[in-house]
């Protein structure tokens, strides 16, 4: 049954238009929630991630027992929430004996799960444990720098995936023009081993140097944690192909067409080189026609039809 | 500078720097050392990005220098699908075919009846049915009819037709996958998805006929002796037909049975035969080779000792002419 629902107010229409698929997309929002059991550490982690992403994140406070991201049936609830809150990222925290301090970072495509990375959080240090000058604290919503260190980010599959996911999650809005005075934060991710990544959030202080380019000083500010990659799920190939399709950047240039004031629209046509020497002479070479053959053999002095005569001459 | 020594991969669009060549060979024991190293390395990388960033051409603004970032080199997946092209509506197709162009219309139109300027549509509009005081009777009119209510009915019909066409256009757009964003479908039978994958399709005539045929033949007698309803056509037998050979072979066709059995046998034998390797030929070749070898060995043992240095197993096709 298809019943068509239209919004009755302009505000509702604008809200729906905002969520529609577009060529240039909005900044992606993150959904932060947790499962049946969480630990003290995990609660702090989720709260601080929410703080890092204020403005582009939604935090749910209730526990969700039917969300199990790596199982086929445990993802429907997540997809429903993603649809309702218009969030394409999610951070799901859970704690169990087998997987302590578990964090699942996931992405959605068309409100279906695209890919997942499950990490365990170790050595977590909250923002409060760092002492720094409050003046250099990074402002909310500023675009961060990223530094990835370690060869394991290229060689190990899981870390490669984690790198992409971390970049996507924390890069904030995609901007064309950047104000150089507003750069004040950086994320430093180091691949300590083939399974762990040390994740740090630092503030940037620009110092005067001799040239116009300032010197950078990184001061550790925000949460710092070690992420141990446990499981991951790469996206489905067909879906990945669709998701990576970029919008056509510019309309195709129309070539060989120009305008003239006098003549109007002029087009150029390029003809290929005509090989006159290589052309076949005529189509009727294969065997002469019967009349001509008979004419040829019977009477050579046939002067009635000069054109006929010429033809026989040619064929000889 | 240290930047020249180590090659970083800098992605300016994402403000990212990646150092693929760093090794933590002497693994630092304490966490503070590790953390310090990370920060040091991080500082270097961020400095690299900042150098690249500040060397871009910048425009001055009130808040500070503004730089235009290039496209990010690391491509990340989209959030939603690309907007699909809307299928043209029935009117658009018709207009394109006829070459009708859309002209902008004025909001105020001069009303002949009252002699004033009125709106084209809305509250006090031109050609409103309610404003007409007298309708002249035509020869084709029946005496008992009320022309005013007739006009009302016609208008209602027009409005209903338009609404039906609008819904049809939306259904077409929905089938193509691109419903306008502010329109939603009240989901009774639809899954809550962005991409419509499973749409209950209406069964076509052929499908229904096929299913009816299958149901008809699904009886013990194969549907032959069932009572047929008035008007029901006999079921079309669309299955495989078996071919039976004639009992007595006529003059023209000979050895049909032989052909049939030959065909089956070939198929069976082909499975166990090897296309690439002809076993018989290979066996004969092997035997011939072995015989020749034995001959040569006999000759070698008979001939002088100078041939002892040469290897006994000769793999040339032709026998060597170095015999003494």
TrEMBL record, chain A:
Per the record, GO CC terms?
nucleolus
Q: Which residues form a coiled coil?
A: none
Ranges for region Disordered: 280-316
One short Pfam name that applies is: Brix
Give its localization: Nucleus, Nucleolus
Sequence ranges assigned to domain Brix in this UniProt record: 28-238
From start to end residue, where is composition biased (Basic and acidic residues)?
291-316
Single GO term (MF): rRNA binding
Q: What is its main location?
A: nucleus
Q: Which domain of life is it from?
A: Eukaryota
- Write out the entry's keywords from A to Z: Nucleus
Q: What is this protein called?
A: Ribosome production factor 2 homolog
From TrEMBL, chain B:
Q: Keywords of this protein's UniProt record, alphabetized? A: Nucleus, Ribosome biogenesis
Q: Where is this region: Disordered?
A: 138-164, 221-260, 290-324
Localization (cell): Nucleus
Where is this chain compositionally biased, Basic and acidic residues type? 224-235, 290-300
- InterPro entries to which the protein is assigned, alphabetical: Ribosom_reg
Q: Which residues form the signal peptide?
A: none
The name this protein carries in UniProt is Ribosome biogenesis regulatory protein
Its biological purpose is as follows: Involved in ribosomal large subunit assembly.
Q: Which residues form a coiled coil?
A: none
Q: Which family does it belong to?
A: Belongs to the RRS1 family.
> In the UniProt record, does the keyword Flavoprotein occur?
no
Look up keyword Nucleus and say if it applies. yes
Q: Which organism is it from?
A: Dendrobium thyrsiflorum (Pinecone-like raceme dendrobium)
Q: Name one GO cellular component term.
A: nucleus
Lineage top rank: taxon: Eukaryota
Write out the GO biological process terms: ribosome biogenesis
Bias (Basic residues): 309-324
According to its UniProt record, what is one Pfam family this protein matches? RRS1
